[in-house]
Design brief:
Elements (H helix, E strand, L loop, with lengths): L1 H8 L3 H32 L1 H5 L5 E4 L15 H7 L4 E16 L4 E9 L10 E5 L9 E5 H7 L10 E4 L2 E10 L9 E5 H7 L9 E6 L5 H12 L2 E4 H15 L2 H30 L1 H9 L4 H37 L11 H27 L9
Parallel strand pairs: 3-8, 5-7
Antiparallel strand pairs: 1-9, 1-10, 2-3, 2-6, 2-9, 4-7, 5-8, 6-7
Helix pairs in contact: 1-11, 2-9, 2-11, 2-12, 9-12, 11-12
């Protein structure tokens, strides 16, 4: 019966491929848009992801996300260092400043000031130079994509000079970082220099990065820090999801991508359902003949479901393959807007569930006609 069901399915190649590509289109749209949505949410927390040394992020209670920060007074650092269970704690500055280049151009950039002594928070993947070069006077490290924006049509090189807040800075290193949510250049320097490059405020301390003593639970240490200092303390993972949650609640990104993914599901289900239904109508005589020969409704349901599964697997494979090829191509082209976008396995799994629902709905439309079919119709 399985072989017969397969032969019935591919008997009309036009309708067969119509169903397959309907499912494939739905799979492609769901997978691609879902992956881009996940990539965008990951970009919102790129600065958190890049700081791998810290167990805990401490900030003012009014801080909304990693980009909207209420600075703290310097003495907060020493309060945190005094909390039992804290092995180390260092400063981190994060803000936006305007950079002026030698040719008279200017760009707004993300400025990150890392601890002067330990350099914790410095990028790990250096294309040119080294993290230790930040100890040199006026030294900064620029991310590779940002360098191309600051110095268009120029090869990567060290020694280029820029100005921030009327102070000179020299490119001593070029790095690769996780792409930010907005495609602004990212510049790293020492904390003491960052406070001079940024417009001066009474308080300049954005975050305190902390490490827990061996054997100390970071989550419990966060509660202890919050209790003793009245600050907001979160583990790196908690802060990442806190940051993502802010963008989910306060931007239109989830709604816009949700509409697109929903349309992909509806279009895929409509095309596959309609075509599969017409395919079943054209084969009603064959199903009637099988009923007349004593084939039970259960066997016929199995045949229809087998056809639906075959179409779903074929369409899902084509759609996921096209989505994977899209992200592979954009990665090789080093498109700044899509850099860091990829196809997570979770998106593949969700797409598979969606395709399963699509083929299930398509088969249910057809099953009703098969189940109520009278065997005698084949003799009329």
């Amino acid at each position: 019966m399985s072989w017969l069901a397969w032969r019935m399915l591919i008997g009309d190649r036009t309708k067969y491929w119509g169903i397959v590509f309907g499912v494939a289109f739905g799979s492609l749209l769901i997978a691609q848009q879902s992956a881009i949505f996940v990539g965008l949410m990951r970009r919102t927390s790129s600065r958190i992801i890049d700081v791998t040394e810290a167990d805990i992020w401490v900030m003012d209670k009014q801080t909304l996300n990693v980009d909207e920060v209420r600075p703290m007074p310097e003495n907060r650092l020493y309060q945190i260092r005094g909390v039992p269970g804290v092995e180390w704690a260092v400063r981190l500055f994060k803000g936006q400043v305007v950079v002026r280049t030698e040719n008279g151009g200017f760009r707004q950039v993300f400025l990150v000031g890392v601890d002067d002594g330990t350099l914790i928070g410095t990028p790990h993947e250096l294309v040119l130079g080294s993290a230790e070069s930040l100890r040199e006077p006026d030294a900064i490290i620029v991310d590779q994509d940002g360098y191309k924006l600051l110095f268009p049509d120029q090869p990567l090189r060290l020694g280029a000079a820029v100005q921030m807040n009327d102070r000179r800075a020299v490119v001593a290193g070029i790095c690769r970082v996780s792409p930010p949510f907005t495609t602004l250049p990212v510049i790293y320097t020492r904390y003491s220099r960052a406070t001079m490059y940024a417009p001066h405020e009474r308080n300049m301390l954005s975050f305190v990065l902390a490490g827990a003593n061996k054997g100390t639970d970071p989550a419990q240490l966060c509660s202890r820090i919050a209790e003793q200092t009245s600050l907001k303390a979160m583990t790196s993972t908690e802060f990442l999801w806190f940051n993502v949650g802010h963008y989910l609640r306060n931007t239109g990104i989830p709604v816009n991508f949700g509409i697109t993914v929903g349309l992909g599901f509806v279009v895929g289900a409509a095309i596959a359902g309609q075509t599969f239904y017409l395919f079943t109508l054209e084969n009603l005589k064959q199903f009637g003949s099988l009923k007349a020969m004593g084939v039970t409704n259960g066997r016929l349901i199995g045949m229809v479901l087998l056809q639906a599964v075959a179409v779903g697997v074929m369409g899902f494979g084509i759609g996921i393959g096209l989505a994977a090829a899209f992200f592979e191509t954009t990665e090789r082209l080093e498109n700044v807007a899509l850099r860091g976008m990829y196809l997570p396995w979770q998106v593949v799994a969700v797409t598979g569930i969606a395709v399963g629902l699509i083929v299930l709905l398509a088969s249910l439309l057809s099953l009703r006609r098969v189940l109520v079919l009278e065997p005698g119709m084949v003799f009329k």
